[in-house]
């Protein structure tokens, strides 16, 4: 099935330093909703609490055929399954000044739902403007070459 959702702003707002992969703990209805594309990663982030990695603020909509889900919270915290040594490594690196853990994509691998995330450093506004300028110049060059 492939990619279920991408965090498009992550590549623009952050410089991605190191990529990781982890399993996402979801209920059955959440998995079905995710596979139907009812995921929004805008504003999602990862944090380490009690030596566990948690995905916060990712929206997974209700799966209507599952019946009434009165107490369902779409943006609830979700646990990310990674090895202990990766959590220790991330803890040490994330404590450094200006580094954060950013979710990149949600995808399937076999029957499992996985989360791709990265250790990232926030870009300054001038770096974002430079990226826009380079993208516009390359787009203009491609248009000229087609003519």
TrEMBL record:
<comment type="similarity">
    <text>Belongs to the SmpB family.</text>
</comment>
<dbReference type="InterPro" id="IPR023620">
    <property type="entry name" value="SmpB"/>
</dbReference>
<dbReference type="GO" id="GO:0070930">
    <property type="term" value="P:trans-translation-dependent protein tagging"/>
</dbReference>
<protein>
    <recommendedName>
        <fullName>SsrA-binding protein</fullName>
    </recommendedName>
</protein>
<dbReference type="GO" id="GO:0005829">
    <property type="term" value="C:cytosol"/>
</dbReference>
<feature type="region of interest" description="Disordered">
    <location>
        <begin position="128"/>
        <end position="147"/>
    </location>
</feature>
<keyword id="KW-0963">Cytoplasm</keyword>
<dbReference type="GO" id="GO:0003723">
    <property type="term" value="F:RNA binding"/>
</dbReference>
<comment type="function">
    <text>Required for rescue of stalled ribosomes mediated by trans-translation. Binds to transfer-messenger RNA (tmRNA), required for stable association of tmRNA with ribosomes. tmRNA and SmpB together mimic tRNA shape, replacing the anticodon stem-loop with SmpB. tmRNA is encoded by the ssrA gene; the 2 termini fold to resemble tRNA(Ala) and it encodes a 'tag peptide', a short internal open reading frame. During trans-translation Ala-aminoacylated tmRNA acts like a tRNA, entering the A-site of stalled ribosomes, displacing the stalled mRNA.</text>
</comment>
<keyword id="KW-0694">RNA-binding</keyword>
<dbReference type="Pfam" id="PF01668">
    <property type="entry name" value="SmpB"/>
</dbReference>
<dbReference type="InterPro" id="IPR000037">
    <property type="entry name" value="SsrA-bd_prot"/>
</dbReference>
<dbReference type="GO" id="GO:0070929">
    <property type="term" value="P:trans-translation"/>
</dbReference>
């Amino acid at each position: 099935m492939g990619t279920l959702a991408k965090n498009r702003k992550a590549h623009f707002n952050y410089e991605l330093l190191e990529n990781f992969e982890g399993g996402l703990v979801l209920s059955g209805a959440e998995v079905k909703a995710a596979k139907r594309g009812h995921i929004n990663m805008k504003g999602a982030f990862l944090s380490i609490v009690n030596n566990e990695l948690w995905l916060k603020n990712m929206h997974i909509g209700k799966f209507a055929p599952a019946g009434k889900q009165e107490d369902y919270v779409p943006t609830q915290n979700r646990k990310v399954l990674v090895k202990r040594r990766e959590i220790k490594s991330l803890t040490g690196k994330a404590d450094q000044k200006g580094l954060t853990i950013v979710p990149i994509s949600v995808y399937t691998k076999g029957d499992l739902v996985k989360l791709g995330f990265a250790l990232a450093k926030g870009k300054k506004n001038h770096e974002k403007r430079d990226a826009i300028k380079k993208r516009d110049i390359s787009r203009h060059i491609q248009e000229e070459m087609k003519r």
